[in-house]
Amino acid sequence: MKRWVRSLLAATCLVGMAGAAIAADLQIWWNKSYYPEEDQQFDKIVKDFQAKTGKTVEYVMFTNEDVPRKVLAALTAGQPPDLSYAFLFDVQHTARWAFEDVLEDVSDVVETIRPHLLPSAIEAITLLNGKTGQKGVYAMPVAQQVEHIHVWKDMLDQAGLKLQDVPRTWNEYWDWWCKTAQPAVRKATGNRNIFGVGQPMSSSASDTFFAFMMFLNAFDTKVVDPATGKLTVDDPKVREGMIKALASYTQPFKDRCVPPGAVNWSDADNNVNFLNRITIMVPNPSLSIPASQYNNPDRSVYMEKMVTLEWPDKPDGRPIEYTTSIKTAVIFKNSKNKALAKEFMKFFLQPDNLGPYLEGSLARWFPVDKRLIERPYWKDQSDPHRVVQVRQYTQRPQVPFPHVHNHRLILVNAENAWGKAVTRVVLDNWTPDKAVDELIARMKELVG
Amino acid sequence: MAVSVAPGRAVEAAPPRRVRWSGETAWGVAFVTPYVVLFAALVVWPVAYGFWLGASPSAFATLFADPIYLESAWNTVVFLALGVNLKLFLALLLSGYLAQSRPWIRWLSVLFLLPWAVPSIPTIFSFRWMLNSEWGMLNGLLWELFGIEGPWWLVDPQLAFGSVIFVHVWKYLPFWTLILLAGRMAIPTDLYEAATIDGASPLQKFLFVTWPQLKNLYVTSTLLSTIWSLGDFNSVYLLTGGGPAEKTHVLATLGIRYAFNLHQIDVGVACVMTALPFLVPLVVILIRRLGGRVQ
Question: For chain B, what is the domain count?
Fold first, then answer.
């Protein structure tokens, strides 16, 4: 019996030692890209880092929605990865995690590139820690995204319409897609199921609130005071602006120029519907739509048929501000190999690594490091989409997401209370006033 | 604890007693230990951890204050009441049809089992695409054949929830048909022969031969299906994702929404735990019924 027990113990120890031997020095959970080029660049960076340091790195890639879910489960179990990056972290988690003292201070990592970062990036990663009451750097900026508009120019051509005919001011702009473009394209194509606008309308897509932020900007509506971080929704002017923004946002759906299924769309569905030529125009918070056609053997799709446009001017004719989302990587306080994770990120954020990585994203993401914007890739005037994108990022006014000024607004994003207000109007036939009042009440509950 | 010692008696330290197990006992322990360890690891630990995660009263307060929870709880009741009963009733009818002894029935049975055998993801996604308002096959056919605009199946909340129940019934009907078919096959044929000699009509045969023999199995199947359907995540999540506007959630999908979309794992666990007062009595009744059958 004794011999049997000893043998069992020995076997257990051997298995345990083997497990320890195959465990990597650094565990990374990373957001899987839409394009192989981006993932291949990340793989190259990992290999280069391993060669340089002699350390082993194990990385796992999850889809957009899955990274936060896996990380959250791991945090609950007390076993987070050493390092993680997700496209949705900044709008759903980062600021809240910083406040809850879940994140490691990474100011030493950011210090290596700080002079080169855009102010918007520094603002987005300088976050309040609720335990210490102090602001610190709790995230590492990788890229940024703003809203773009894409159009099937060849569909307009077929209907005898020209891009130059598209009005520049707000109300006229949306009316044109609904009342001019949609009927003309339907008539020209004989397809009754083509819609003028691919506006996300669901409470499950983050694309809904990305687009809604632009509508708030159009009506000069700031729901939080940047100086104090307090909600401003009790101000009658702010409420009025929210009502106008919601009415404007939902009008195309009520005019039946948004696909009805938009109330169920996930983040990929506005892309899918546009790429299937069900919508003529679509707002989208990255260049993922043209990027998906970059390697299309029919080059005319990318170069001519599909066009990227800037957003229209505000109703009074002033240029609109673009709400910027800063994509962040984080290291957790409970991570086992924090020092090595920081070393990796210092390596990753170097222009020679991060530059090709972002370019591998086929311009879906835009740099936050000024040195990267100067690389030839972003200066290329022959790319019709990138030219517009660079102009949007470098020449147009930008504002941060409201949650940058108050971390609790992340709860409003996570719950997608913005999308809920939209569905109140389009599904429940509420007036925008009533839906905004419910939204304001919910914001107060969540934000305080 | 106070220890009293009798006066005049020396207290001697008792030598440690070594428990010597007989070979039989040791082998018994050795054989039982893996099961105890597995039971602790796979049953006791997850359940206890779940209770611990959802033990916060504030989580329940958050849950009950959320109007989506009440709507989802009601949806769950409707989903179970309609989905389970419709499914079992249809299974009862179909099992009668498939119990016929014609040769092609076997092939039909195999085809009929396919929805249950094929994984949920491709089949339920196919329904999602078929029911799409703009380019789905169903509305396309309605337009092509009759020139009518089809309804917005997954956009209108009532239609969307009806579609969820339909897909649930479609998916799990074959399994329960198979179970009830097996029950029918176990009924001695001489009972039917005797009924035929007595001049019983088909309805009378069903009422006085089939149903009394099948009743227990039907009720047990209904209980079991209710317990399983309470945790049916796929039919809802893959078809509607709980949308539009979170109006088609059931408790299983709402729990996931709280836990992983809203980052409130305690509320997510609490949401699922609110089904326990309904679930536990069902399990007890089921076990008692099964126990009674065994005796």
Answer: 2
